[in-house]
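Pilot study result, target chain (181 residues):
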Amino acid sequence: GTNMELYDKIHSNEELKTYILAGNRVLGELGFTEHGLAHAGTVSKMSREILEILGYSDHECELAAIAGYMHDIGNMINRCDHAQSGGILAFNILRSLEVNPKDIAMIVGAIGHHDEKTAAPVSPVAAALILADKTDVRRNRVRNRDFATFDIHDRVNYAVEEAHTEISDDRKVFTLLIKLD
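Predicted structure:
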């Protein structure tokens, strides 16, 4: 209906899906791990959960879920600076959907700061996205079939049998528990 949750509006947006898949295809050509709809969905869910556990508002949790879903669209342009280009792409999509400017600023700021080389927890949404992105480790993300040419991401992801996260009772320690093969 007209009062469709913002997240649902974004998650069902076909244009956005096309860009996520395009970015994933580019990274496949470069030999990177999976960065498609599965990764987008996992990071989205985890970003939301992190802020939920920490007691943030439903609204902030939703913004984290949106940032998590959209965070890698810049890869369709280039892997280099994909966080910044992704933020600009997200800005245009969110504006076309007439999202509130304060919410746009929060989402694109998180996307623009999620990449490890330039990452910074500039907001709770950005911090949740950085953590969630790093916790998506699983064997089925590895596309490279040649063990001899595995990079660090391939090796880590391939070795993981199970992964889950825990946040300490005092909410100060975030732990990624990994069962390795």
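One observation from the pilot: DSSP finds eight helices and two strands in the chain. A full batch analysis is planned for the follow-on phase.
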